[in-house]
Model the fold of this input.
Amino acid sequence: MVEIIDLARHRRADTGGALQVFQCGGAHRAKRSKAITASPLDEIPGIGPARKRALLLHFGTASKVRAAALEDLQRAPGVSETVARKIYDFYHAGG
Done:
């Protein structure tokens, strides 16, 4: 047990302090988190965070939302016929 504590102290001393290591990792973590939550659904007018969340929970991924038929979109919770049509048209514009 004493050896483990000594190794931890030694590691902190080598890095210049644990605080600096965590500060760098925190900034990267925040940027990465933002990138992960970005989705093509963000580009669809009328789709806010709540509908986006509902669609992703219902279908699993943004790709599955894109591949969904109009009827499937209408069955998703929190999605009206009008919104389902907007989503479908956004992905299937031009035929």
Summary: The mean pLDDT is 78. The chain has six helices and no strands.
